[in-house]
C-alpha cells in the first residue's frame, strides 16, 4: 500500500499556491535583509556580504518549508530525489562553462553600458584573507546556491514545468534573473537559470542544478580573489 497521503496523490508537484507562497516570502525576506545590510557601514563590507549570504540561505530554506507545508508535504515532489552520477559530473562541466559564459555576457554588456560595480562587496571579502575567503565560500558558494535552487527550481521551475519547457525553463530563468536586479547580473543569472532549469527538467532532481550553481559561484568568488 502506498504511504502517500491523499494530498500527495492529488498534488504531485508544486503549483501556483506554492509559487506565490515561496516567491512572496523569499522577496519579503530579501527586502528586509537588504534594508538591514544597508545599515552596516562600508568599512565592514566583509561582514555585510557574509550576513547577506547566510541570511539569503535561511530565507530560501524558510520559503521552501512554507511551500512544502502548504499542501504537498513530500520533498520528492520538490525535486529532492537521487539522480545518476553522470548528471552530477555533467553539472560540474556546465558550471565551469557558465563561469566562462559570464565573461562573454559581461564583455558585450559593458561595451555598450556603464554601471557601478555591484559585486564590490564580494570582491572585497574575497580579497580579505584565507578566513574571509573560507567564510565567503560557505555563505556565497554553498548556502546561497542551496537556497536559490530550493526556491527557483524546486518550487518555481518545478511548478511551471507543467506548462511545457518554455514556461519551466525560460519562464523560471526570467524570474530568477529579475530577482537579481536590473544590472548585468540579471543576464548572468538568466543564463545560469536556463542551464539549471534544463537540468532540473531533464533529471527531475534539484541536485545537478545545485552542483552547477555551487561551481559557478565558487569559481566567481575565487576569481574575485585574484583581482
Automatic annotation (TrEMBL):
Highest taxon, organism lineage: Bacteria
InterPro entries listed in its UniProt record: CAAX_protease, Rce1/LyrA-like_dom
Organism: Paenibacillus silagei
Annotated TM spans: 20-40, 46-67, 87-113, 125-146, 167-200, 206-224
GO molecular function, one term: peptidase activity
UniProt entry keywords in alphabetical sequence: Hydrolase, Membrane, Protease, Transmembrane, Transmembrane helix
Organism classification: Bacteria, Bacillati, Bacillota, Bacilli, Bacillales
Chain ranges of the CAAX prenyl protease 2/Lysostaphin resistance protein A-like domain: 132-218
Descriptive protein name: Membrane protease YdiL (CAAX protease family)
Any one of the GO BP annotations: proteolysis
Amino acid at each position: 500500500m502506498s504511504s502517500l497521503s491523499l494530498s500527495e496523490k492529488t498534488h504531485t508537484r508544486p503549483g501556483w499556491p506554492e509559487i506565490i507562497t515561496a516567491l512572496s516570502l523569499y522577496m519579503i525576506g530579501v527586502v528586509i535583509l537588504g534594508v538591514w545590510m544597508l545599515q552596516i557601514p562600508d568599512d565592514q563590507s566583509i561582514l555585510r556580504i557574509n550576513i547577506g549570504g547566510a541570511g539569503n540561505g535561511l530565507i530560501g530554506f524558510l520559503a521552501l518549508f512554507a511551500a512544502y507545508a502548504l499542501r504537498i508535504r513530500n520533498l520528492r515532489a520538490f525535486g529532492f530525489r537521487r539522480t545518476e552520477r553522470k548528471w552530477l559530473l555533467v553539472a560540474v562541466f556546465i558550471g565551469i562553462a557558465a563561469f566562462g559564459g559570464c565573461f562573454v555576457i559581461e564583455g558585450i554588456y559593458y561595451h555598450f553600458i556603464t554601471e557601478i560595480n555591484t559585486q564590490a562587496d564580494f570582491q572585497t571579502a574575497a580579497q580579505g584573507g584565507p578566513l574571509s575567503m573560507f567564510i565567503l565560500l560557505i555563505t556565497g558558494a554553498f548556502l546561497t546556491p542551496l537556497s536559490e535552487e530550493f526556491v527557483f527550481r524546486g518550487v518555481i521551475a518545478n511548478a511551471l514545468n507543467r506548462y511545457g519547457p518554455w514556461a519551466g525553463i525560460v519562464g523560471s530563468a526570467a524570474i530568477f534573473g529579475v530577482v537579481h536586479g536590473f544590472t548585468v547580473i540579471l543576464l548572468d543569472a538568466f543564463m545560469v537559470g536556463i542551464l539549471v532549469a534544463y537540468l532540473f527538467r531533464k533529471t527531475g532532481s534539484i541536485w545537478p542544478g545545485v552542483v552547477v550553481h555551487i561551481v559557478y559561484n565558487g569559481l566567481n568568488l575565487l576569481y574575485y580573489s585574484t583581482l
